[in-house]
Design brief:
By secondary structure, this protein is mainly alpha-helical. The protein has 3 domains: 16-123, Fumarase/aspartase (N-terminal domain) (Fumarase C, Chain B, domain 1, Orthogonal Bundle); 133-222 and 241-376, Fumarase C, Chain A, domain 2, CATH 1.20.200; 381-476, Ribonucleotide Reductase Protein R1, domain 1 (Orthogonal Bundle). The chain is 61% helix and 4% strand. It contains 19 helices and 6 strands. It has a two-stranded antiparallel sheet. Strands 3-4 form a two-stranded parallel ribbon. Helix 8 packs parallel to helix 19 (455-476). It is elongated and about 100 Å long. It binds arginine. Residues 41, 45, 101, 127-128, 131, 335, 337, 339-340 line the site of arginine (ARG).
Length: 477
């Protein structure tokens, strides 16, 4: 009877020393070192160890239920897996050179510990459905942690918006001062983008929540497996419909990479503003020492590195997304080794976005807003011009005419080197009745459109954002 003993299997006498591959039977010679060095994935799929063990527990439990292994064999496998898990956790697990991936390493060690029952574990299973299962379990676990980090950042934006009260600053279009907006409104704008990121992540996680286990290498099995039961045991919401699709589908990886890329793009845009605002030219914020860095040469420097790296890493995360799409685009069904290239970008994007969210959270929580500088930047500008035009509209003047009148006064003010308020006051068509509209803060206070940048409507928006924050926190924290 074939088993795993040396005596019963053809020896891989040459090649990489220290154990056999899972596929040694077919080969007279073991793999060359160059092949192993190039094709191994253990160096990065070690991170799937706990998921691989969980997947094996689920598979073994199913095998016992359908009678492929007996209760004693299941007990031996589960005890062996517990030991493998413990060895991995306390770093006493010894990898051998033939461990080409984490699946090989876990099964090899399990079989050393449990003997024949261990060698039964892979019945009806392939590494193709195994790795897809592991990766979906990883996404479920790490995706939730990523969501939690984004939810914290969202909460900080909302808290800071509440705290800054009526402070206002210039709103920009084309990076030119356009209209005054409450600082709370500006902070909340970023909070809604992050709220959508978390929502999108939740959707991606829901679509990833499908078990591929039982698809085998590509075609299922002649053994009476119960994929539905495996799925339930592992806590998946559903099981696959098509075995070819189950082992080839990496939509969930591509979706996660998109979610991460867009999330980092949002942090990049927020970061870009913090970089500008912390410059002497803007001077709108002061960064906390703990969340800024210094220069090795220039003693006076205080740099916004967290914001810059969020901006920089956005490029890398976009690369991870386009990389996986390029890998997938030419692949025929079903499993191809190319798919091993899914893991590094996935791990990288999820790690980087999570770290960025946590660092940005700290940075935002500790920023000092210089609300006097912000106000001065807009009070001294022409940003109240449209308020005068709208006051004329309220008196019945067609907007196009009103725009032309105020445009003329702006031009005259610029030519005469006077403020808009002075030019308005002395203008024959406008006059002192209109200068009140240019008082500091008047524009913000007068704005009434729902969702707009007016004092009262922003208060209503803040209430909504706070409700969104509590909802996100109760789901993810
Ligand atoms: N390390 C492989 C991966 O990450 C595991 C699956 C290997 N399957 C195979 N047929 N060689 O994709």
């Amino acid at each position: 009877m074939p088993n795993n003993d040396d005596a019963a299997t053809p020896a891989q006498t040459t090649g990489v020393a220290g154990g056999k591959t899972l596929w040694h039977g077919r080969f007279e010679e073991g793999p060359d070192e160059a092949l192993m060095a190039f094709t191994e994935s253990l160096s990065f799929d070690k991170r799937l160890a706990t998921d691989d063990i969980a997947g094996s527990r689920g598979h073994a439990t199913m095998l016992e239920r359908v009678g492929i292994i007996n209760a004693d064999e299941l007990a031996a496998i589960l005890a062996g897996l517990d030991q493998v898990e413990a060895e991995l956790a306390d770093d006493t697990f010894v990898f051998v050179p033939s461990d080409e991936d984490i699946h090989t390493a876990v099964e090899r060690r399990l079989t050393e510990i449990a003997g024949a029952p261990g060698a039964k574990l892979h019945s009806g299973r392939s590494r193709n459905d195994q790795v897809a299962t592991d990766l979906r379990l990883w996404v479920r676990r790490e995706g939730a942690a990523l969501a939690a980090s984004l939810v914290q950042l969202h909460g900080t934006l909302v808290d800071r918006a509440a705290e800054v009260g009526p402070a206002y600053l210039p709103g920009y279009t084309h990076l030119q001062r356009a209209q005054p907006v409450p600082l709370a409104h500006h902070l909340l704008a970023h909070s809604w983008a992050i709220e959508r990121d978390v929502d999108r992540l939740g959707d991606a996680l829901a679509r990833a929540d499908v078990s591929p286990l039982g698809a085998g290498a590509l075609a299922g099995s002649s053994l009476p497996l119960d994929p539905e039961f495996s799925a339930q045991t592992l806590g998946f919401a559903a099981t696959f419909n098509n075995s070819l699709d189950a082992v080839s589908d990496r939509d969930f990886v591509a979706e996660m990479l998109f979610v991460c890329a867009l999330g980092m793009v949002h942090l990049s845009r927020l970061g870009e503003e913090l970089i500008l605002w912390s410059s002497d030219e803007f001077g709108f914020i002061t960064l906390d020492d703990r969340f800024s860095t210094g220069s090795s040469m220039l003693p006076q420097k205080k740099n916004p590195d967290i914001a810059e790296l969020s901006r920089g890493k956005a490029g890398r995360l976009i690369g991870n997304l386009t990389g996986i799409l390029a890998t997938l685009k030419g692949l025929p069904l079903a499993y191809n080794r190319d798919l091993q290239e899914d893991k590094e970008p996935l791990f990288d994007s999820v790690d980087q976005l999570r770290r960025a969210a946590l660092a940005m959270n700290g940075m935002l929580a500790t920023i000092q807003f210089r609300i006097d500088v912000m106000a001065a930047a807009v009070d001294d500008s022409f940003a109240g011009a449209v308020d005068i035009a709208e006051a004329l509209v309220a008196q019945g003047v067609p907007f196009r005419d009103a725009h032309a009148i105020v445009g003329r006064v702006v031009r005259q003010a610029l030519e005469a080197h006077v403020s808009l308020a002075e030019a308005v006051e002395t203008d024959a068509e406008l006059g002192p009745d209109f200068t009140d509209l240019l008082r500091p803060g008047a524009g913000v206070a007068r704005r009434i459109t729902a969702g707009g940048a007016g004092t009262d409507v922003v208060a209503a928006q803040l209430t909504k954002a706070q409700a969104a924050s509590s909802q996100l926190q109760s789901r993810w924290l």
